[in-house]
Amino acid sequence: MIDAAALLGDHKVTYRAPWELDAAARQAIAEATARGETSREIGARLGRDASYIRHVRSKMARGRAQDARTAGARVEGGRVRFPNEHRPGIPAGIELDARFARLLGYYCAEGSVCSDKARPNSHTLNFSFSRGEAHLVAEVQDLLRECLSIESARVARETTLAVAVCKSSAALLFKSLAGARSTHKRVPPQLFDAHRPVVRAFLDACVAGDGHRYANGKVSVTTVSRELAYGVAWLALKLGHLPSIYDAAMGEDGTVGGRAVRRAPRQYTVVWYEGASVKRRVVETEKFYLVPLRGISSVEYDGDVFNMEVEEEHNYLAGFFLVKNCQNWLTSQALRDDAAGTRPQVVSSDRLISLAKAYGASLVGSSYNEPLITAEWAVEVFKKAKAEGFKTAFISNGNATPQVLDYLRPWTDCYKIDLKSMSDRNYRQLGGVVGNILETVKMVHERGFWEEIVTLVIPGFNDSEDELKRAADFIASVSPDIPWHVTAFHQDYQMTENANTTPEQLVRACEIGRAAGLKFVYAGNLPGRVGRWENTYCPACDELLVERYGYIIRKMKVSPAGECPQCREKIPGVWA
User: pTM above the 0.85 mark?
Assistant: First the structure.
């Protein structure tokens, strides 16, 4: 959802305030009042009612007797508009569906916002097409009508056909989302988190407006905005294509449609291929696309360098290069280590639920650092999440009391506990007591939470066969249905003295868990390297129920009722 009211909230317009008396007459009223004349006397001289004179004097006393006023947007009946703008304005909230994404795509390709020098607060939204693109003009007019409920004008110019909307609220909305001038255009940030059909609609409109499709599957989009080019490339990458960006210097003078024009100094063309008819210079491995490098160079840089948290193997793309990265310390250490480069953000519970909806989530969870210290905040969020149909989860170190578990239970479906070790000595090194954690595991199960246990297997700390067996035996004694996730340690932040966990060590831990009677044991965060231990199998018939690759679910066969489709065995868990 695009919050148009919030986007326009910072914009102010200055407009003329109509007065029946000019500035000289109002000054005369002020001077007469200062001399002690009554409103009746002043009104008789100016030919006005005494009540009107009192009204003018009141305005002047409050400093509101100017010929011009400055104000922001107004929200009326679910729509937003600026003062002196004709009603009804535009919707205060706009769904970011495929139709609106397509309208944004046409704007990024062919749109602009301009203002008359004589009327600096009157903004016009324009879309310009060639004479042969009347069908695109008609489509843009239809989209404006469907998405914003506004009418537009078709303008025939010497060499172009245009769509014009003389409505400041609409013009400033598009300017806020995507920029006003061609060299400053950008992909609206909301599209980077949008679902694929929405992204595809945006790119299709960009291509139709300022791009080209070739018979061999090649697709290109050309722009003079570097930011827009890289944004388009990111969206193409999101759809599974491998984009290339070509940066070309341009001469200052050029010709467009027979007209002499001044050109931007650089032009960017984004190219990708939809289909396999063209062989690209890329090597596809099981997990990555490897592309050739044209060269490597270095530059001097003085400034802040920021890091980010990412999923799975902690890799991300920077400038379309794969970068290895670490995981959670950016969040967990944000308040105590400036090197984390991240600062806390104030956010409301309503905003969190809105984000969950926008991302298409099914579950809302509380984690990092330890959510037990903010249990009241979690319950506030979970209450609203449950009302909206979300499942809820607590991701905790397991150092809980009976009171807090009773407090959480009505609003919490799932509870994950880190069982870091079975050694009290090891736990005390971390500031905890193993007995408290084991007791919490029991209490969580007794209260009916769906419980899962995670053990980070750290070589030299908790990876001995004896300790792993004791952990598995304890979990099985509480319930053999509790899933046990054994995950791989990797060197991060300030813990680099221990070796990284190998796939073989994780597989051995899984085998220990299965031998202890646990029905659901998983090896985590080494996707594709631990065999069947990433998947869920029916404990009765060994049917493959959930096939995973890291965080990706490739197959899901468990029925909504939580049953194996082969033998109808009840599979414990929370199933969406």
Answer: no
